[in-house]
Amino acid sequence: MQRLQQVFSGRGLVIAIPFAFLLAFFLLPFLIVGKISVSEMETVSFKDLFTYSDGVLSLSLKFSNYIFITQDSLYFKTYLASLQYAAATTVLCLVIGYPFAYFMARAKATLQPALLMLVMLPFWTSFLLRVYAWRGLLTEGGWVADLIVDLGLDQLLLAMGLISAPGKLMHTPFSLVLGMTYTYLPFMILPLFGNLAKMDLRLLEAAADLGASPWTAFWKITVPLSKAGIIAGSMLVFIPCVGEFVIPELLGGPETLMIGRVLWDEFFSNNDWPMAGSVAVVMVLLIIVPLALFNKYQAEAQERP
Question: What is the fold of 72-271?
Answer without folding.
Answer: MetI-like fold (1.10.3720)
